[in-house]
Amino acid sequence: MSADPGAGAGGAYGRVMPSARGLAISLSLLAVAAAASLGGSWFIAARYPHRPAPRDTLFELLPYSAHARFLMGAALALGLALFLRHALVAVPDQLPKIISIFALMYLLRAALICLTPLANSHGEGAFFFPVVQHGMFPSGHSAASLLFVLLTDPRRAPRLRRLLLGLALIGWITLVVAHGHYSIDVVGGLLLAYFCEREWSLGALVDPLKRALGSAAGEP
Predict the structure, then answer these.
(1) Taking the CB of residue 10, how many other CB atoms lie within 10 A of it?
(2) Cis peptide leading into 49, omega within 30 of 0?
(3) Residue extents of the structural domains in the chain
(4) What SS3 class is residue 10?
């Protein structure tokens, strides 16, 4: 009886699993990004207690709905769950890359929120539970939901990518309708996510990190 061609070092059905070192590097970077985000939020609250609240054209044009925050939270949670399942089941070898891109996005966001210390938008928020977050621009929610889309391969999972895009659109709209973020925060989040994904794919700024991850995976 011949051996299962999908079995072996790559895991069941030929899946290539990520290296432990690659995961350690990317998760360490994500931990640094989380610490930077908390530090940036603390800096804003301590240094700028009386931050300005800018006017927002879409806040004035669109009807306000506090309940839209629940739809936004549901769309984000479902998008996260679907994307995680795709990453863990379909492309586990890409986990260090995916985690690193998210970490870079949140590192850049931690710096940007300190450059633009705006007052929290005056809605009831976009969360199911109270979350203390003093950074508004750019929106991490918007950036993360776009990365879910950009990091899903349209050739391997076209339907999932379209579904994630639909959920992201719901999230972006309801963020503004619920006054969870200013509209410029949403736009800034989308630009940040696009920059991080494009820079990883085509740029050279993160080449040292890519080389470290490649070396950890045994790539030349």
Answers:
(1) 13
(2) no
(3) 17-216
(4) coil
Check: CB of residue 189 under 8 Å from CB of residue 138.
yes
184: Cβ contacts below 8 Å, ≥ 6 apart? 54, 56, 137
Kindly report, residue by residue over 143-202, the tens digit of the pLDDT.
999 999 999 988 999 999 999 999 999 999 999 999 999 999 999 999 999 999 999 999
Residues 6+ apart with CB under 8 A from 81: none
For 75-90, b/e burial (b = at least 16 CB within 10 A) is: bbeebeebbeebbeee
Whole-structure pTM value: 0.88
Nearest to 126 by CA among 192, 162, 165, 170: 170
Helices (H), 52-139: 57-61, 68-89, 95-115
Cβ neighbours around 136 below 10 Å, total? 25
Q: How far is CA 79 from CA 42, 71, 171, 196, in A?
A: 29, 12, 10, 19
Residues 209-218: tens digit of each pLDDT: 998 888 665 5
Summarised one tens digit per residue, pLDDT across range 78-129 is: 999 999 999 999 999 999 999 999 999 999 999 999 998 999 887 655 455 5
